[in-house]
Structures are given as structure tokens and as C-alpha cells.
Write a structure and sequence with these properties.
Layout (H helix, E strand, L loop, with lengths): L1 H15 L5 H7 L4 H10 L13 H17 L4 H27 L20 H5 L4 H7 L6 H14 L2 H19 L3 H25 L4 H4 L12 H8 L6 H4 L4 H4 L8 H23 L6 H25 L3 H5 L6
Length: about 325
């Protein structure tokens, strides 16, 4: 196992050297969409994979799967399961897309689904053929995600809120993943991710869905300190300008409260930065342990989101400064 760990960590550090820095993003934003796509196509971190307008989600997935494949050479036992859970987040996207088509009473378009190949529990062709929620559930019988999918869809029949359902699917997925692993590194990464996602969920439930705390409480993924259910309830029931007193250390000192009380700049981006910082340090601490690749994969996924945001911004005519202000560098 130590040889496996050395191989994986060596690959992590090699791939990490290809991350884009601020000057790279500034250069990328000086191009039009097609020029930016060509620049990425030639970059060592994205070589051979060119983004196409209207197909950015597909490009993001292909880039991420290429990175996963570089580690899957050594994937066996628990390490393989870690990679499987990571890629499984993309399968959740397909499930959400399928449900949206069903609610619109339209046939699911296979080209709109994310292709994750053999990592998927269900083939895209099978998913595209379903005609009801019951058909969807039949596809996932005896699959690891079946029970939480069934429970979420049962509750959906009552509230009929797609945004609520999608939030619940994400939360339940993280709960199931963290309960299935014994790796301290994986748990550390997931607890950091859950802290970030729980606050996003909190903001969504309170500001968008306008839910009472009793209705929202079940949507949070399990997390140890610092974001216990007690802390989340206090945040949920408090005004935004009081959060700095309630937030636990180290988040209290890292939250950049804006005068405008902008939730994205004041909460979401700083938490994302905190997660990035945690992943960087875990890569350093996880020498000889292949699970350290999970931290790298999450950093890579954030960089891919940054690039997609840049390409969308270029296409929509946003200024360079507007786009750069939304990025969290890895």
C-alpha cells in the first residue's frame, strides 16, 4: 500500500504544478471564447480537450474524468471506492436532469446527460428511456444510493419543490459517503466540504425557499465541529450582520463581511477559500496515502468551475474585473 501511496502522491504533485494562477486567468480573459478555448487546448493541464459553447458541463466532466483516470491505475479496495464516490457526484447531476425533464413531461435528451462511462451505476441510454419517477427508482434498486434517493423522492411528492429536492439529494449523498468511509483524510476533506455546503444550504433555504428552521433542519449533511446542528440553528435564526459573533473559529476571522452584506462575497467565497486552503494542506499531510488525491481532485474541480465561469463571462460580455472577482484560485 505504501508503494501505491507514493505513486499517487507523486502524480498529485506533478499535476498540481499545472494549476492556473491569477496571471493565467487574466491572460485567458483577454481572449474571445474561441481564442480562450484554443489556449486551454494547448495548456498542459487541459491538453487535448477543447471546450465548446453550449457544452461546458460536458467539457468540465471530461477534464475531471481524465484526472480521475490518472489515479485509477492504482485504484483498488478503499481507494477505488473513494474515486467512485467522487465521480458519483456527477451521476447526481444526471438524476437531477432526468427529474426536471419528467416534471416538464418531456422526453429526456441523452445529449444533455453527463457521460461518466463505466463509473456510472446506470447507463445514460437507460436513464434517457425512463418515463416516470417509478422507472427512475427501478433503475437504482440494489444500488448504494437507492435508499436515500427513494426517501428524497417520497418527500418530494409532498412539497413539489425541485430546488428543495436537489439540495436534499446533495446533502444525503454527503451523509452516505462520510458514513461509508474510515479514512481520516477522506473524512477531513468531506467535513470541510460539508461545512461549506451546509452554509450554502442554509442561505438557500432561508433566503430563497423561505423555510422555517424545522422544515430546513433535515436538509443539512452531518458534520462534526465546528458547524454542529446547534450552530447552524443559531445562524439560521439570526440576522446576517450577527453571524460574525456566532461563527466558530477559524471561520469567524476569515469571513470578509461587506458593507452591502452581499452573501456571495461575505460568506460563500470566503468559505470556498477556506476549503481550498484545507485541501492544499491535506495534500501535504497525506504523504504515502492515496486518499490525498481526493483533495487534489476537489481543487481541480474548483479550477474547472473557474474556467467555465470565465468562458461563460467572456461569451456574455462581462468585464475582466467582474469575472476575476468571482474566482477562488487553487
Amino acid at each position: 500500500m505504501q508503494v501505491t501511496g507514493v505513486s499517487v502522491i507523486a502524480r498529485v504533485h506533478a499535476r498540481k504544478s499545472y494549476f492556473l494562477n491569477k496571471s493565467d486567468f487574466e491572460e485567458l480573459l483577454s481572449f474571445n471564447f474561441n481564442q480562450a478555448a484554443d489556449w486551454l487546448f494547448k495548456h498542459k493541464g487541459y491538453q487535448g480537450l477543447i471546450p465548446v459553447k453550449g457544452k461546458l458541463l460536458d467539457w468540465q466532466t471530461r477534464v475531471l474524468l481524465k484526472e480521475v483516470s490518472l489515479f485509477s491505475i492504482w485504484a483498488q479496495g478503499k481507494f477505488y471506492e473513494t474515486l467512485k464516490w467522487f465521480v458519483g457526484q456527477k451521476e447526481l447531476i444526471n438524476i437531477k436532469i432526468a427529474i426536471r425533464y419528467l416534471e416538464l413531461e418531456q422526453k429526456i435528451k441523452p445529449e444533455d446527460l453527463v457521460d461518466i462511462g463505466s463509473w456510472s451505476y446506470v447507463r445514460n441510454g437507460e436513464l434517457a428511456d425512463i418515463q416516470s419517477i417509478n422507472n427512475l427508482m427501478d433503475l437504482y434498486i440494489k444500488k448504494p444510493i437507492y435508499n436515500f434517493l427513494k426517501n428524497a423522492l417520497e418527500r418530494y411528492k409532498n412539497h413539489k419543490n425541485l430546488g428543495f429536492l436537489e439540495t436534499e439529494l446533495d446533502s444525503e449523498y454527503y451523509k452516505l459517503w462520510i458514513s461509508s468511509t474510515k479514512s481520516s483524510i477522506t473524512k477531513n476533506i468531506l467535513n470541510s466540504l460539508i461545512s461549506w455546503k451546509n452554509l450554502e444550504t442554509l442561505i438557500r433555504c432561508r433566503e430563497i425557499y423561505k423555510l422555517d428552521w424545522i422544515d430546513a433542519a433535515n436538509l443539512f449533511a452531518y458534520s462534526k465541529e465546528p458547524f454542529t446542528l446547534k450552530v447552524l440553528s443559531e445562524l439560521y435564526l439570526s440576522a446576517f450582520n450577527q453571524w460574525k459573533v456566532i461563527l466558530p473559529y477559524p471561520f469567524r476571522n476569515n469571513i470578509e463581511f461587506m458593507k452591502s452584506e452581499d452573501i456571495n462575497y461575505g460568506i460563500i467565497l470566503p468559505l470556498k477559500k477556506e476549503f481550498v486552503s484545507r485541501c492544499r494542506s491535506l495534500i501535504t499531510q497525506s504523504s504515502f496515502k492515496p486518499e490525498g488525491s481526493l483533495a487534489f481532485l476537489y481543487l481541480k474541480s474548483i479550477e474547472i468551475e473557474n474556467i467555465a465561469l470565465c468562458l461563460q463571462g467572456i461569451d456574455m460580455g462581462f468585464s475582466k474585473d467582474e469575472i476575476l472577482g468571482e474566482l477562488v484560485y487553487v
